[in-house]
Structure formats: C-alpha cells, structure tokens
Amino acid sequence: MLRNFTCGELSISNINQQVTLCGWVQKNRKLGGMTFIDLRDRYGITQLVFNSEQNAELCKTAEQIGREWVIQAKGIVAERYNKNKNIPTGEIEILVAELTVLNRSEIPPFTIEDESDGGDELRMKYRYLDLRRNPVKKNIIFRHHLAIEVRNYMNSIGFLEIETPFLIKSTPEGARDFIVPSRMNQGEFYALPQSPQNFKQLLMISGYDRYFQIVRCFRDEDLRADRQPEFTQIDCEMSFVEQDDILQTFEGLVKHVFKKVKNIEIEAIPRMTFEEAMRLYGCDKPDTRFDMQFVELNDTLKHREFSVFNHAELIVGIVAKGCANYSRKQLDALTEFVKRPQIGAGGLVYVVCQQEDTYKSSVDKFYNQEDLKRLATKCNAESGDLILIMSGDTDKVRKQLCELRLEMGKQLDLRKAGVYKPLWVTDFPLLEWDDETLRYYAKHHPFTSPKPEHIPLLETNPGAVNANAYDLVINGTEIGGGSIRIYNKELQQKMFSILGFTPEEAQQQFGFLMNAFQYGSPPHGGIAFGLDRMCAILCDSESIRDFIAFPKNNSGRDTMLDAPAKISKTQLDELGIKSLNY
Amino acid sequence: MLRNFTCGELSISNINQQVTLCGWVQKNRKLGGMTFIDLRDRYGITQLVFNSEQNAELCKTAEQIGREWVIQAKGIVAERYNKNKNIPTGEIEILVAELTVLNRSEIPPFTIEDESDGGDELRMKYRYLDLRRNPVKKNIIFRHHLAIEVRNYMNSIGFLEIETPFLIKSTPEGARDFIVPSRMNQGEFYALPQSPQNFKQLLMISGYDRYFQIVRCFRDEDLRADRQPEFTQIDCEMSFVEQDDILQTFEGLVKHVFKKVKNIEIEAIPRMTFEEAMRLYGCDKPDTRFDMQFVELNDTLKHREFSVFNHAELIVGIVAKGCANYSRKQLDALTEFVKRPQIGAGGLVYVVCQQEDTYKSSVDKFYNQEDLKRLATKCNAESGDLILIMSGDTDKVRKQLCELRLEMGKQLDLRKAGVYKPLWVTDFPLLEWDDETLRYYAKHHPFTSPKPEHIPLLETNPGAVNANAYDLVINGTEIGGGSIRIYNKELQQKMFSILGFTPEEAQQQFGFLMNAFQYGSPPHGGIAFGLDRMCAILCDSESIRDFIAFPKNNSGRDTMLDAPAKISKTQLDELGIKSLNY
Predict the structure, then answer these.
(1) Is A371 a residue whose pLDDT tops 70?
(2) Which residues in chain B come in under a pLDDT of 50?
(3) Cα–Cα nearest to A358, from A367, A369, A350, A347
(4) Where is average pLDDT lowest: A179-193, A222-236, B91-105?
(5) Disulfide-capable partner of B288 in A334, B314, B406, B421 (CB 3.0 to 4.6 Å)?
C-alpha cells in the first residue's frame, strides 16, 4: 500500500509513530516559517506540517502544492499546540519528512466544501468532484450501510436474493418501457424491466417462497422533479401468505433498518385503510407526524344562506391549533396559497376561535355565533385555534385541503426532521377509471388480486372492488407498496379483459405467466420499496438524486458522460434500425 | 401464514403436535386403505397420510390429487413405522385431518425430479418448473449464499458497494454494446454497460478508495456455449495500491468464500507470470490441479534427421506418468485427438519409457536409444511413463499441446471435482496485435497501465510492453481479472493513440475520464470476478446457465418469455426509430 494509515484514524495514542498518509489537499496555508496542509481522504482530515527551518526545500515544495492535488506524506505523528476539537484527528499533526506528489490537479471548477460555491449543473457535470464533498459522501456511505442491513435482515429471515433478467420482453401496460434492439434477432426488441414483478411471481410458482432482490428498474417516463429513468428497488415476494403476514414481515424489516442505520426504535406501525386516509387526510400518503385530521362538516354547515357550501358535495375543515392570532395578511396568504393554479381552490373559509366562545369568521354574514360554536365543538377546536374550511367536489376538495394541511404543518413546524412516522395504508381500490381514455387502469398493477369477497363485483361494479394492496408511507412519502397477487389463470384473464386487453393480446404479452399459473401456483404476495427514496426519507432529504452516485438530470441526461449520445451508423446498421432523426 | 411449519423441519421431537403444512405434491400413492402424499416445498419433503377407515371422504379427496398440485394439510405429527433415513423428516408423517386444495396443476411437461425426463429446450421453456428441481434449487441457493458472503467480507474490510448507472454512453472499443434509443433525446442512444470500468475509476478519483459492486453487465456478442448476453460481475477497485496489494486483498476474499460456502481452507495462492504460464502450460489459464508441465526440447531433439522437428520453431513435450502401457489404439486416438480441426496439429510423437532404460517411439527411425534416454532425462520421465511431443510455431504448438495436456489430465482422472487450485497469473502483455485489422488491441482494456519501466517501449515496441495485469484462475478457468490503471491524461491519450483512436475520437468517447484525471486522480487498480462462473467452478459445473434463474439460450433468446419480440409501431414511432426488418 502507498499508505499505512488513513487521514481519519490517527490520535494522541499514535504520537511519535512513523506514518505514511495519502490523500487530497484540502487546504494549504503558510504561517511564518511553517506550511500547513490539510490532507483529506474518505476517512477524515489530518494536518501535515512543514518547517522551513528544519527542511527549507521540502517546505518550498509543500508551499507549491495546490488544492486537490494528490500527495503521499511520510512523517512522525506529533501532538498539536492548537488542538482542533471539532475533528477526531484534531489533537495531532504529522511532521512531514518526505513528500511525493502522486498527481496534480487543475483548480477545481467549484469548491470541495460542505457548502460548495458550485451550482447544480456544474456539480453534475463534474460529479466526480461533487462526490468528494462530505454531504454527498455521507449519503453514498449511508446507502451502502442501508443496503447491507436490508440484505442481512432478509437473509436472516430466510429470504433468498435471486437475480432476474434485465433483457426481457416489452409489456406496454403501465409506464413506458425502455427498449433494446436485438442484433441477433433483427426486427425484435428486448425491454428493460420496470420491475421484476412477473419474475418474482414465477419464482413463487417455482417454490422459492421467500425472494428478495435489490435491483435496478427502468421507466421511460417524462421526468418530474425527483424521478430518475433508472432507480433501485428492494423487491420482495412471499408464498402462502395473506396481507397481514406481509405487513408483519416487513414491519420487521423497517424496524431493523431504523434501529441499525438511525438507532431509532420504531413502534408498531399503525394501519389505516385507503378510505380512511382519504377521509382524514385527503390523500393516500398522509404525513402523520402531526394530526390536524379532516373534519367533514356537511351536517354542520349546510342549509344556511351560504350557497357555496350548500352546493358543495363536501365541506371539510382542519383545525390549526393556536393560530387564532394569524393576521389578516397571513390569512389572505393562506387563501392565495389554495387559489394557486397548482391547487386550484375557489377560496378558503376561516373561523377564528377567540376567548370565551366567541368567533370571528370570513362567513359571519351566513353563520351566527351559535352556528360557529357548534362548528368549533364538532371540530374539537378550542379558543386560540383557527379553523380552515374548504368545499367542493369530494375528490378535489380533499386534495386541496391536503395541500393546505401540509402547508400549515410546515408553518407550524410540525413536520420535523428526525421524526419518523411510518404508516401502512391498506385496502386500496383495485381499479381507477380514466376519464380521458374511458377505461379502467390497475391502481397498483394488473397482477393485484381483488379481495376475494369483492370478486363478484368485477362483473357489476369494477370501480367498487378493493384489493389487498398496501403502501408503506413515512412522513407523507410512499416508500413502498405491494399486494396479494392473482394466482389463477381465469381471474388473471378476467382482470386483463377489464383492462381492455383482447384475449389474444393478454396471451401474447402475459401468456408465460398465465400458463405458469396452471402448473401449481401458490397463493402469494409481495412488496417493493424504493431504495433511493428510502435513503432520502431516512436522511430527511428532499431529493433522491443526493443518494445516487451518478444521477441523470430531468431530461434523462447524464451531463458528465454526455449521454445519451449519437452512435455510429455501423452500430445502427448492425442492429437493423434507422434513426429518423439523423 | 397459511402454514406454521415447512416440509423440511418436522422430526421426532414434534410428535403429537398439530401442524399446518403447504406445498406441492411430489408423489401420491395408494396402499391398501391408506393414501400417502409426499408434500414438497423449498425446505424438504414430508409424508402425509390419509386413512380411509378413519375418514373415507378425506381419503377419497386425497386420492384425486395429482402431481404438482398445491395443497394445505392440517394434522398431527406421528412417528412412522417405515422410517426413511435418507431424508431429515423421514422419521415422521402427518396424520391429516383437513385438506385444502390451494391450486391444481396440469400434468407437468417433464418430471420434477433430480433426473428429469425433460430435454434442455423444454426445461428452458418451462424454466419455472425446472427451478423446482433440487439440483437447480441448490444452485440458486448456493449463489445467494456466495453473494451474501462476498458482500459481508467486502464490507468488513471497508469496501463500499456503490451502484453505477445502467443507461450510459456507447464506447465501442472492445465488445459490442447493447444500445437503448432515447425517446426524450431523439436520435441519441444510451448503451448498457459492458462493465462499470469507467465509473469505478471515477469513484477512485472521487476518493471512495475501496469500491465494490455485484452488478449486471451486458455484451452483445455472438454467443459461444456458456456465454450469456447479460452476466454478473463482482466488480472491485482500490486506490493507493500496487499490484501486490490487490492480489493480497482478493486472496483474502477467495479464502473467505471457500471457507464459508465450501468449508475448504485455501492455502496461499501461488503466482505465475503470463510468460511462465505460456511456457509451462501453453495457456494463460492453466489447470494446476495436476503438474504435467511442458518441457521445451529444441536443444534435445533438433539437428537429427527428423525434418519436422528441424523446421519447427518449438518442440515441446509432456510426460504422462504411468502411461507406457497405452495400447497402439490409444496412442492412435491421441494422434487423432490433436489432428481434429479444432486443434489442428499435424501429428504427435510419442516415446514409451520401457523397463531398464529402453525406449520405443514413433520416431525410432531418427533417434537412437541414447537420444531417447537423453530426452527422458530432460523430461524427468521414468520407466513406465509416456512422453508426448509436438512441434511447430511456438504459439500454435503451445495451444495444441495445452489441449492434449488437458485431455491427458481427463483420461488420467487428474482433474478431480472437489479439488480447487487457484492461481494468480500476472504480468500480462499490455497489447495484442491483430493480423486481420492490422492494429493493436488492449489485452485487458484501454485503461490498463503499462509497467512503469516499460513506458518507454510504448514508442519503440508496443508489443513488448507488459502490464500490471492479473487473472485469477481456478482449475483452468479464468474467474477474475484486473489491472493497475492509467491515472494521468497524457498516458491515457498515448494509449488511445496506440489503439488507433484519433485525439478527437478519444476525447469524444472518453473525454469525461481524461478530464477527471486532471483533477487529482489517485493511483488505483482493481479486479472483477465473474459471479456466474465463480458459482459454476465452486460447484464443479460446466455451465454458468445452471446458476442463473432465467438464462438465455445461445441465440440470446428467453424461450420462456419469448423475448426478444416484435414491438408495436407506436413504440418505435415514439422513439423515432424504424426497424429495417418490419
């Protein structure tokens, strides 16, 4: 090795030891006759000292060394006069006797510091330099530890990691596939998997009963903020189970991971049906770090003179504790917030609960103090609280109030970093009607089983069918989801027919799976977690990109590689394809 | 759970316990008033018993259950009269009280037995049934354990697993890339990685100093037997190291893996230079389970009347111990063996070492007993041995004799299953001249560093330049290879120029890497192991396909999925490409 210690491990106990370190120059400063270099590697920073009185030539060499140069330094560990208590190696320094420049560096395009002066675009183009920064490094190391802990836990409870293929067949239900032209079978194409869904089901049919895989998945979707065309899933499947068994099993995983990587003990994870989540929080992934549950107010507020409410399908409110002192300006800002096009509400009604059961509201014209008191009682609001009310079509108003609730949570600092509230949301609807294409889509995917007692409804009212489908939500973000699967051919065929497949299309695309169901398929179900997102949530980060070593930008480009890129005509010819854009 | 025990865990200690098992019907047989079902799951087989006297109806149901049906059985554990000592559960059986058919099965297209009656093609089409067979299951589970052990070892010595992207840029040096059309950037293409080579180097430049990844790689090559278009690599890289550090580090990994998954203690792994391996074994991946080293015989056998030898560049022989008794027929067969077109030798000379220093040879006309005695001495051959000699151009004859040596090893049962002889082959040449395209190719890849002392030769005699490149060979199969890398821009540019790149081409394809070298690149090197092949070698299997859950055939097809396949015109249009074969 070119070194015998790292820059993160020497301490007072190594005094007088002869050591060789390698690393990058973080800082180089001259102080009188002394030159100090902060040498950095993956493990920390160690101070190197050069004394011009003792070795003028060496000191001169040291002076000329710039930021990010790679050097090797041999010397003796000494105790520092000015100790730096902020870093583990802050009590020592190296009196350097020998110095080798292993490689020079141009001046980096941005500072390699916790707070860099480089913008996002520049840092992505030079991602290899961005990766040197502590905050990014911490994330990459965190991800490694998380993956190790997941694997060891899954192994400890009998799950086998089994690799599934990446060059598969395109099955254009759901998101768009990336496709790969076949050279050996011209005119034919592979697709990259959106998930190993069918393979893990086949593995259940093969009897592997507990499968997992940390695996890359691909979706050729128009990228919203914080979506990547390739992402990593913790993909799991089990046989001979019901919904409750899966929730139990993976509650174990969640607890293990939190304990191991965050040293946090997670309590039993609460469960809530989809219907309940929509009713109480207006969305299927509520942030339960704070309550502020919805109160439905049709009975309380309809049948007065206020026609907006009288015409609304749903009147629904939340209570912002202790916000009675909100100024007119603040209240107006909340109204503006819900009226923004992204939210699109018509307006916002507020009721201020003042001292001694008196109320002030934006609808005083229509409701007397008696009405408002009844309202406050219904909402469990006390004096000092602020009630915020919206109305409209059920689905829309829930979504709008959900946004307002999250905004209030933010304003009241109720969405605290470092607090983690996992939640199982269960019993999702099987299907979703799309008004545009006038057809049903699978809410989860076409392999999700209806609840057995709802199977008859498939014929009469498919929209009312629920599934044993579940999501794991933490702090308002979905980090995993799964379902109990269909495991017989007839039901799967029925499902495809509801989704608008002809029997031929279904057979052509998913025949391998439906055939497999005929050879002894066990009842099975599973779940998949987004690893990138799990990392982000556990580290209180907004962006999954922070946890991906080489991410792509929102146009699906890797600006460091400059990919995608044109390829040679020879390559296209060999594949028997022609680009219409050349 | 639909079960509270598996079919592999009940024993005499569970007698009288009430249990519920689930699994597949391996066998169903009627014996008098009794019906016996062998129930199979991932963990084993348990015998179920139905007694028609006790419950005629249940027994009748049981009788009708066919092979591979999935059932749930509840009952009491009882001691067997006829114990089966061959299986762990052979001392007990379940007296079934309740039976549920979870799913039926068609009659499987081949038997689900250790020795199946299904041919290769049929088993691949129904791979999900093939995967139920014990030998395949054992392999898949073995692979899981191997991967776990590799990961935990690498983690324990400070390596970080870091995921690298799959959608990258095509760099058509080396094998052919699979390419992926970009929809969002039409006319441009991603490529799937042949290995994460450049990314792991960038990670070294980023300071991650110990990286590994178990990662899928892709090569669009015409498939020889036992090659797959997608395969899995244990990919590793380290900074601040020299060749010896890498060999030491990964010797540790090899020892750990052998100990953990095979319970075999591996001695220090011997090292041999490429030159030595070629000279002593005629190939760069010798099977060192047996000696039978080459003896070069120019000095001993030239300058007699035998013009074949006199005109040969190299005369070289091996000694087959104890084979003096080979019959004329056997000797002829050996001659036929080396004359086969795959080997292409002109002939084979043999010398039989008889009793009391007498010799019989196929070249008695040209060599007297004195000559042959000298030959035997040179070869260390004793009476009872057989000397086999070939001659010709050095490279060719070494290759031919290498094949003969392996054949003799096989005939003499010297290539024993269960014996493992790892070997480091080092100091590979940097470049290989290709007579067809009249250019040099990188022997390892373009990022391999020449030995520092050979750098001047790059100008004058590139073919003579050696590299700090190394392979790990076990029993004649290369299972890993790596090198110390180039880490400065000028040398990398020089390397590309020797490989026939214009400076513009080099910059266009690998500019990101050469730029990165300018910002403080540490000395680094690494290695990659073939996981599929490592599994195969450790399990004495010929085929990597046996260790891949869903492999492709030699035309790159997945016959189970029927992939690759045609895709819709809509998909092609969206990508802006046209297939010339539609």
Answers:
(1) yes
(2) none
(3) A369
(4) A222-236
(5) B421
Q: How far is B166 from chain A (nearest CA, A)?
A: 8
State pLDDT tens for residues A241-286: 999 999 999 999 999 999 999 999 999 999 999 999 999 999 999 9
Contact yes or no for A24 and B520 at CB 8 A: yes
A47: Cβ–Cβ under 8 A, 6 or more apart, which residues?
A36, A37, A38, A39, A80, A84, A89, A92, A93, A94
Which residue in A has a C-alpha nearest to residue B155's C-alpha? A148
Report phi then psi at A28, rounded to 5. Answer: -140, 115
- CB of B72 within 8 A of CB of B94? no
Contact B567 A488 (CB under 8 A): no
B123 within a domain of the structure (yes/no): no
Of the partner residues B127, B188, B582, the one whose CB lies closest to the CB of residue A564:
B188
**A224 falls in which pLDDT band (50, 70, 90)?**
confident
Residues of B in contact with A151 (CB under 8 A): 148, 151
Contact criterion met (CB < 8 Å) for B131 and A206: yes
Q: Give the C-alpha separation, B196 to B99, whole Å.
A: 52
Q: Give a yes or no: residue A144 inside a domain.
A: yes
Q: Do residues B254 and B365 both lie within one domain?
A: no
pLDDT per residue as tens digits for the range A96-112: 999 999 999 999 999 99
Amino acid found at A517: F
- Put simply, the answer to whether B170 touches A571 (Cβ < 8 Å) is yes
Residues B171 and B265 grouped into a single domain:
yes
A203 with B579: Cβ contact below 8 A: no
Whether A581 maps to a domain, the answer reads no
Using a pLDDT cut of 70, give the percent of chain B over it.
Answer: 100
Whether A564 and A466 share a structural domain:
yes
Interface size A-B, in CB pairs within 8 Å, comes to: 365
- Angstroms from B417 CA to nearest CA on chain A: 26
d(CA B250, CA B257): 10
Domain end residue (candidates: A354, A384, A411): A411
Same domain, B229 and B304: no
Which CATH number covers residue B325?
3.30.1360.30
Chain A CB contacts of B163 under 8 Å are 143, 216, 232, 548-549
Q: Around Cβ B115, how many Cβ atoms within 10 Å?
A: 7
For residues B143 and B248, state if they share a domain.
yes
Cβ contact (<8 Å) for B208 and A131?
yes
* Environment class of A438 (CB within 10 Å of its CB; exposed 0-12, middle 13-18, buried 19+): exposed
Q: From the list A102, A108, A522, which residue is nearest B103 (CB)?
A: A522
Query: B358 and B263 in one domain?
Result: no
Whether A165 and B550 lie within 8 Å, measured CB to CB: yes
CATH number, residue B429: 3.30.930.10
Closest chain B CA to residue A518: B105
Closest Cβ–Cβ partner in A1, A162, A177 for B240: A1
The pTM is what?
Answer: 0.95
* Nearest in space to A366 (alpha carbons), one of A375, A377, A355: A375
List of chain B residues whose C-beta atoms are within 8 Å of the C-beta of residue A185: 555-557, 564
Range of the domain at A334: 290-411
Domain count, chain A: 3
Residue B503 lies in a domain: yes
pLDDT above 80 for A30: yes
**Do B554 and B225 contact (CB within 8 A), yes or no?**
yes
Are A152 and B147 within 8 A, CB to CB? Answer: no
Nearest to B100 by CA among B152, B145, B48: B48
Task: Collect all residues of chain A within an 8 Å Cβ-Cβ radius of residue B579.
Answer: 181, 186-187, 576-578
- Pair A297, A348 in one domain: yes
Q: Quick one: which H or E segment has residue B69?
A: none
If asked whether residues B496 and B526 sit together in one domain, one would say yes
| Chain A nearest C-alpha distance from B287 (Å) | 30
